[in-house]
Design a protein that fits this description.
Elements lengths: L15 E7 L5 H11 L5 E8 L1 H8 L6 E5 L5 H10 L5 E6 L8 H10 L5 E11 L6 E2 L3 H7 L22 E4 H11 L4 H11 L2 E13 L15 H10 L7 H21 L4 H17 L10 H12 L2 H41 L4 E8 L8 H13 L4 E5 L14 E2 L4 H9 E6 L14 E4 L17 H4 L4 H8 L4 E4 L2 H10 L5 E4 L7 H4 L2 H11 L6 E6 L15 H8 L3 E5 L12 H7 L2 E3 L6 H7 L2 E4 L4 H5 L6 E4 L3 H8 L12 E3 L2 H10 L5 H14 L7 H10 L22 H4 L2
Parallel strand pairs: 1-2, 1-4, 2-3, 5-8, 9-10, 9-12, 10-11, 12-13, 13-14, 14-15, 16-17, 16-19, 17-18, 19-20, 20-21
Antiparallel strand pairs: 4-7, 5-6, 5-7
Helix pairs in contact: 7-8, 8-9, 8-10, 9-10, 10-11, 12-14, 13-27, 19-22
C-alpha cells in the first residue's frame, strides 16, 4: 500500500498547510477528511500525520493530493504535530486533531485572512464550536475577545485578554517560520500550555472572528483514566507559562487570573483523595504566592476569599469555608424554591378563576417578539382591526422594560401581573408572531392566530432536531403542545406554507394571504418614502444602503462581519450605510465616529419599524436574514454577503441553497461586495433577473391587502370567497424608489 502521496506540483508556496495529526479516535478522522475533500482549496495543502495503522489506511484512501506521514502507534500528539509540520510548505500552519472537525469552507476563511497579514504577525486566532458526545455545535464564548481586537494586528501586551480564549491549538494558526523558531518550546502534549505559549512568544497576533474549527470533546469514560496525581500537571503548566509573562504587566495579570481560577476550580470540583488534595493545595499555594503580580487586586466576594485562603496555604480553613458555603447555598436555594412555589400557586389560582369566566368576544390579545412591543404582523393586523372592527378591543402584552416605548394610549399588560392572566384567560382572540407561554390554556371558543415573523431560509421547529446548535435544548414536546393551540397560521408564500406544515405539524388552517407587515410596501407613496429618509437624516441625492445581518447560532453575540469604516470610504461620500444590528462596535476613538457624525453611517439597530428603513433604502445588503424576502416586495436591489455560508448552512440548517436561488448579486468577501457597488453590478440586468425570479417565488401573496384578508376572515368571520383576491405579481405597484420619490 502507498504510504505517501506526493502533492501536485505548484509554482507557488500554498498560503496554508492544514496538518491533521493523531490517531483515528472513534473513527472521526474519516469525517474530517471527507469534509476537506468535499471543499478543496487551491491555496492550501493537506498533511495527515497519521498515528497507527487505522489512521494511515484512512488517510491513504482519500484524495491523492493529501500528504500522508505514517507514524507508529503510541506517537504523542506533540511529535505528530512536529512530523506533519516538517513536511509542510505553507506560509501558515493550522494544526487539526484527528478527532476534531472543520466547518465547510474553514480552510478558505483562514487562508484568505492569512493572506492579508504580513510577516510581523505570528499567530492568527479563530473562533470555534464545541461538539460533545451528547451535544453538537455549541458556540464558544470567545467571540467577544476576538471582536474587541477586530482586524488589527497587535502585540499581545496590547490585547492580553486574548489569553482568555479557549486554549486549543485548533483555534489558532501559526506562521510557519514562527513555528520553526519556537518548535522546541511548543512541542508538548499539554495542548493548553502549547496554545497559550504560542501567544506569549508571538510578536504580533491577529484575529478572524468567524468559526473555523470544531473542537470535539470525547466522553471521559471512553478515554484512559487519569490518576489523581495527574492533577499536579495543571500547576506545572502555569509554572512553565508564568515566566514567559514575568516582566509583562498585562499578560501576567491575565495569566495569573486564569491560573487562580483553574486552581480553585480543580481543587473544589475534583473528588481527590485527601493526601493528593493536600499536596495539590500546597503546590497551588506556592504558585499563587510566587507569581502574584505587584498591586494585584483579588476579586471581590466569595472568589476573593478563596484566593486569600489559597495564598495563605490554609487547607483546613478552606475546607471549613467550603462546607459553610455549601450549607448557605442549600438554605438560599430552599428559600427561593419556596417563594417560587408560593408565587406560582397564587398565579395559577388567579388564572384558573379567570378561566371559569365566559370568553369575551370583543377582546383581542396581541404580542410580538417575546413581548417587545407593537411590531411586525400583529401590529399591522391590530391597525386594520381598529379600522374594520372597532368593536374589538386590542390589548398588547409588553415587557416592563418596553412599556415606555409604546405609542400613546396603547392598552397593555405586563407579563406575570394579575390582569395579564385575566386577559389571556378571557380573550376571544390571541395573536402572536411567536408563541404564548406553555401555561396558556387553549379554550375551545378562543381563536389563536400565529402570524410568524419571516419566510424561512433556516430550519425551524421540529426540523431543528438535527441541528442542536440552533435548537439549544429546545423542548420539542412542549413546542408541539404550543403548536396544537394554533387555529390559523399566516403565510407569505407557498414555500412558507409547506415549511410550516413540515416544521409545525398540527391541525391549524393556513391563511395564504401574505404578510400584513408587508402591506406598507404597496400602500406607501412618494411622500412616505421622502418622510422616512428625512427622519433618518439621509440627505437628498445620497444612495442609502441598508446593511442588516442576521444572528449566528454559533456566535455568542453580534459581531460586525464587515469593516464598515473601510466600506464607507470605498463606496464614497454619496453613499450612506444604514446599519441594523444588535449593537455597534467602536467607542469614542473608533474610526466610525467621524463617519457617524458626517451621516455616512447611521446606526439603526434600535429603529422601529424596520419596514420604514426598507422604504428609505435604495438597496439592501444582508446575509441570511428574512428581511430579504420582505424587501424583495419593493423590487429594489438586494446583495447577499455570504462570507460564512458553509458554516451557517451546516450549523443552522437551511431549506434551500441561497447561493443558487439568490435575490441578486452574491459576495463572499468584502472586496467582492465593494466591487459589486463600485462597478454598478448591484443594479445591473443579471441582478434584476435574479430578483424577478426571487420575487415571484417568495412574494407570492404579498399585494398590500394581507391585513384586510386576515381581519375579515378571522375576526369578522367572512368566507374565503368573499375576501379580496391576491393580485398577480405583475399587476402590483410597489412604493416608489427613493430616486423616483425625490425626482
Amino acid at each position: 500500500m502507498t504510504l505517501h502521496h506526493e502533492p501536485k506540483e505548484s509554482s507557488a508556496m500554498p498560503q496554508l498547510s492544514v496538518i491533521v495529526y493523531g490517531p483515528n479516535a472513534q473513527g472521526h478522522l474519516t469525517e474530517l477528511l471527507d469534509t476537506l475533500e468535499a471543499h478543496p482549496l487551491s491555496d492550501a495543502e493537506i498533511i495527515v500525520a497519521a498515528v497507527g495503522d487505522w489512521a494511515r489506511e484512512t488517510a491513504a484512501g482519500h484524495a491523492p493530493e493529501t500528504i500522508v506521514v505514517p507514524l507508529p502507534d503510541g506517537t504523542g500528539d506533540a511529535q505528530a504535530r512536529s512530523a506533519g509540520a516538517a513536511r509542510a510548505s505553507g506560509r501558515w500552519l493550522h494544526f487539526v486533531h484527528a478527532k476534531d472537525g472543520l466547518p465547510a469552507g474553514a480552510p478558505r476563511l483562514i487562508a484568505e485572512r492569512a493572506a492579508e497579514l504580513d510577516d510581523s504577525v505570528d499567530v492568527l486566532l479563530l473562533d470555534h464550536l464545541t461538539t460533545t458526545w451528547q451535544s453538537a455545535a455549541r458556540p464558544s464564548r470567545d467571540g467577544r475577545f476576538l471582536a474587541a481586537v477586530g482586524r488589527a494586528a497587535l502585540p499581545l501586551d496590547e490585547a492580553a485578554d486574548l489569553l482568555r480564549l479557549t486554549p486549543l491549538l485548533g483555534n489558532r494558526a501559526l506562521r510557519r517560520e514562527f513555528w520553526q523558531a519556537h518548535e522546541q518550546q511548543l512541542t508538548t502534549d499539554d495542548e493548553p500550555r502549547a496554545a497559550r505559549a504560542a501567544l506569549l512568544y508571538a510578536g504580533r497576533v491577529a484575529c478572524l472572528n468567524q468559526v473555523a474549527y470544531e473542537n470535539r470533546e470525547l466522553r471521559p469514560e471512553s478515554l484512559p483514566p487519569l490518576a489523581p496525581e495527574d492533577r499536579y500537571g495543571l500547576i506545572e503548566r502555569y509554572e512553565s507559562l508564568m515566566p514567559l509573562a514575568k516582566d509583562r504587566r498585562a499578560p501576567r495579570v491575565v495569566l495569573y487570573d486564569l491560573m487562580m481560577r483553574d486552581l480553585v476550580r480543580t481543587f473544589a470540583g475534583e473528588n481527590l483523595p485527601d493526601a493528593v488534595a493536600r499536596e495539590f493545595f500546597r503546590r497551588a499555594s506556592l504558585a499563587a504566592v510566587r507569581w502574584r503580580p505587584e498591586r494585584y487586586e483579588r476579586p471581590s466576594g466569595v472568589e476573593g476569599v478563596r484566593h486569600a485562603l489559597l495564598e495563605e496555604g490554609a487547607y483546613t480553613k478552606y475546607r471549613a469555608f467550603q462546607a459553610a458555603n455549601r450549607t448557605r447555598r442549600a438554605a438560599r436555594k430552599a428559600v427561593r424554591t419556596r417563594k417560587r412555589q408560593v408565587g406560582a400557586k397564587l398565579r395559577d389560582q388567579q388564572y384558573r378563576r379567570a378561566l371559569s369566566r365566559p370568553v369575551d368576544p370583543h377582546l383581542a390579545v396581541f404580542a410580538a417578539y417575546w413581548e417587545r412591543g407593537v411590531a411586525c404582523n400583529p401590529a399591522a393586523i391590530a391597525a386594520k382591526l381598529t379600522e374594520l372592527a372597532p368593536h374589538i378591543h386590542p390589548v398588547w402584552v409588553v415587557s416592563k422594560d418596553n412599556t415606555a416605548l409604546l405609542p400613546p394610549g396603547t392598552d397593555h399588560v405586563v407579563p406575570g401581573t394579575r390582569r395579564y392572566w385575566e386577559v389571556l384567560a378571557t380573550a376571544k382572540y390571541l395573536v402572536n408572531n411567536v408563541n404564548f407561554p406553555n401555561a396558556v390554556v387553549k379554550r375551545p371558543d378562543a381563536i389563536h392566530l400565529q402570524t410568524h415573523h419571516g419566510t424561512p431560509l433556516k430550519r425551524m421547529g421540529l426540523d431543528q432536531i438535527e441541528h442542536p446548535a440552533a435548537a439549544k435544548g429546545l423542548d420539542f414536546a412542549a413546542l408541539l403542545a404550543r403548536i396544537d393551540r394554533w387555529d390559523y397560521s399566516v403565510s407569505a408564500n407557498s414555500h412558507s406554507t409547506r415549511m410550516w406544515e413540515r416544521a409545525y405539524p398540527a391541525r391549524y388552517t393556513s391563511l395564504d394571504y401574505g404578510y400584513p407587515r408587508n402591506d406598507v410596501f404597496y400602500t406607501s407613496d412618494a411622500a412616505a418614502v421622502r418622510a422616512a429618509r428625512e427622519r433618518l437624516g439621509i440627505a437628498p441625492g445620497k444612495t442609502a444602503v441598508l446593511y442588516a445581518p442576521t444572528h449566528r447560532d454559533y456566535e455568542a453575540g453580534f459581531t460586525p462581519r464587515l469593516d464598515l469604516a473601510e466600506l464607507a470610504d470605498r463606496l464614497g461620500e454619496d453613499t450612506v450605510l444604514l446599519v441594523r444590528a444588535h449593537y455597534f462596535y467602536g467607542g469614542a476613538t473608533s474610526p466610525l465616529t467621524g463617519l457617524r457624525r458626517s451621516g455616512r453611517i447611521i446606526d439603526v439597530s434600535s429603529y422601529d419599524p424596520v419596514e420604514e428603513l426598507c422604504l428609505a433604502a435604495d438597496a439592501l445588503v444582508t446575509d441570511y436574514s428574512s428581511i430579504m424576502f420582505d424587501y424583495a416586495n419593493l423590487d429594489r436591489p438586494i446583495v447577499v454577503y455570504a462570507d460564512d455560508w458553509e458554516t451557517y448552512r451546516t450549523t443552522r440548517g437551511v431549506y434551500f441553497d441561497l447561493m443558487t436561488e439568490h435575490p441578486g448579486q452574491v459576495a463572499r468577501t468584502q472586496e467582492e461586495l465593494t466591487e459589486i457597488f463600485r462597478s454598478g453590478a448591484w443594479r445591473d440586468d443579471s441582478a434584476a433577473k435574479a430578483r424577478t425570479a426571487f420575487r415571484r417565488r417568495f412574494c407570492e401573496y404579498d399585494d398590500g391587502r394581507a391585513a384586510e384578508r386576515v381581519v375579515r376572515r378571522v375576526f369578522l368571520g367572512e368566507p374565503e370567497e368573499a375576501l379580496p383576491p391576491v393580485l398577480p405579481i405583475e399587476d402590483r405597484t410597489p412604493a416608489p424608489t427613493p430616486e423616483e420619490a425625490t425626482a
